[in-house]
Structures are given as C-alpha cells and as structure tokens.
Amino acid sequence: MKKLAATLLLSTALAAPIAAEGITQFNIGLLGGENAQDRLASNECFRAYAEEALGVPVRLFTPADYNGVIQGLIGGSLDMAWLGASAYAAVWLNDPEAVRPVLVKTNLDGSYMYYSIAIARTDSGITSLDDMKGKSFAFADPNSTSGYLVPLIEIPEAGYSMTEGEYFSRVGFSGGHEQTVIAVVNGDYDAGVVWADGQGEWEDGYNSGALRKAADSGLVDMNDIVEIWRSKPIPEGPIVLRSALPQDVQDKIYDLVANLHETDPDCAYGVAAGETAGFTPIGHDAYETIIAVRRSQMN
C-alpha cells in the first residue's frame, strides 16, 4: 500500500497541468564534489520530474565550488540544494531565514550518518596517519563537512597537526571529493579525505558517497586505494528549500523527493550518490552541533 500511495502521489504531481503559482522557474543547485557533467547526468531524472510537477522550467546549476551554491541560496537565485552539514551551517549563519532543511538521505540501515574517510594508494605503504609524517594531505573544499571541517578538528585532536610543515609536508585543497580521489590515485597527494557512508563493501566504494561514485564511474579501482583514517559519525547534510517559495511549490518538491526511492530507484541512486533507504524528514535541530563548530572556526 505504501508503494502504491507513493506512486499515486508522483503520478498526480506529474499530471498537474497548471504551473505552480508565484514562480516562473525553479533552480536547483548541485554542490561540488564531482565534475559538472556527472552532476548534471545524475540529477537530470529528478529535474525532469520537478519540471513536470511544477509546470515551469527547472534548471540545474553546477557552480565550480561549494560557495557558489551557498551564495545562490543566500541570494535567492537558487530554490533547492542538497547541502553538506557545514554548507547548511554557512547559509544559516549568514541568513537563518534563507532556507529550511526538509529531508535527509538515509542509509540502508535507516541511519543518516556518514564519515570523513582518508584514503591513500595501496602501493604507498601508508596504512594509517602514523605513516603520513612528511607526506602531503588533501582537503576537498573549505565548505565541505567531511572534506574539511571535521578532519580539520579531529585529526589534530588525534595528535597530528594540520599546520603545513609541522607533520604533513603539504596541506591543500583538491577542489572537491572526486578531485581528491583523482589526486591520490595520480600521486598528486599522498592522502586525502572524502565522504562515504562506511557501510557495505570497500570493493564497491561502500554503499554511497564519493568513493561509490568514483568506483561506479571507473575513476578508481578500490583495490588500488586503502582507508587510513575515519572520523566520528557525521550527520548527513539536508535537502533544503528556499523559505520564500510558495507553500504549494515546497509541498510538491517535498513529495517528489520523499517518494523518489520508491517510485524511481534508479533516479534515487543517482541523486543520493549510491544505495539509499530513501529520504526522511529532518529539521534544523539536527545541525546545531555542526553550526556551533562552524561558528567557532569563524572566531
């Protein structure tokens, strides 16, 4: 019955012949982490569903970095995005009324946590951070939770300074999670951090995340890299909607996302960067800890 109800909801939305009132276009921001073409391809199915449901053109935007999506949401030029927790914190700290978190991707076990995972080449001989003295280390993006904020705090807490030259020979930004995978595989950095749910098989790139996307696309053979560090669990970032959107628009998009896993599993796989149990409601309270951490880094 649940699947039937979800199907009927999607069918009703797709059949709506009247454009949503109050908007002439709906803009979706796609956070960085993989190349723009792959981001567009992974989300095209959802774009088409949203366009049918709203009756207005729906556009996908792929800024070069996380900040492009953050500023688009703050400025009101973007209507929707799937943010990391730190990116959501950045938007909220700038304007608490700009967006509202509505849904979060859940793992196959029903949780919505993931990890910052440091990787190195298998043939490098590096198996832990203890082996990284005098080696180079890559972050992803300054606005990434798992690719910057969390490892920036947790790795020094474990006894390894992130100040360049003190423990690591070089510390830099690759530009995104996919770029980190490529940089490590190519030897541009000895190690770097990416995001993953940490569930499933290593050989598959786990169930979801940057490693799964890289493995699926053939960018990496997981046998060629090894996990050398893992953070504490991190709350998965929220799907946010621009607060000023008309309520009927918000409701239609909410229903599409909430039911996507049941109505089109293949589409959900692309949108969620791998296997998922679907999307579940989430609110601001889930991110107060990350907001506090992000605020502390501003001082």
UniProtKB/TrEMBL annotation:
<comment type="similarity">
    <text>Belongs to the phosphate/phosphite/phosphonate binding protein family.</text>
</comment>
<dbReference type="Pfam" id="PF12974">
    <property type="entry name" value="Phosphonate-bd"/>
</dbReference>
<dbReference type="GO" id="GO:0055085">
    <property type="term" value="P:transmembrane transport"/>
</dbReference>
<dbReference type="GO" id="GO:0015716">
    <property type="term" value="P:organic phosphonate transport"/>
</dbReference>
<dbReference type="GO" id="GO:0043190">
    <property type="term" value="C:ATP-binding cassette (ABC) transporter complex"/>
</dbReference>
<protein>
    <submittedName>
        <fullName>Phosphonate ABC transporter substrate-binding protein</fullName>
    </submittedName>
</protein>
<dbReference type="InterPro" id="IPR017797">
    <property type="entry name" value="Phosphnate-bd"/>
</dbReference>
<feature type="signal peptide">
    <location>
        <begin position="1"/>
        <end position="19"/>
    </location>
</feature>
<keyword id="KW-0732">Signal</keyword>
<dbReference type="InterPro" id="IPR005770">
    <property type="entry name" value="PhnD"/>
</dbReference>
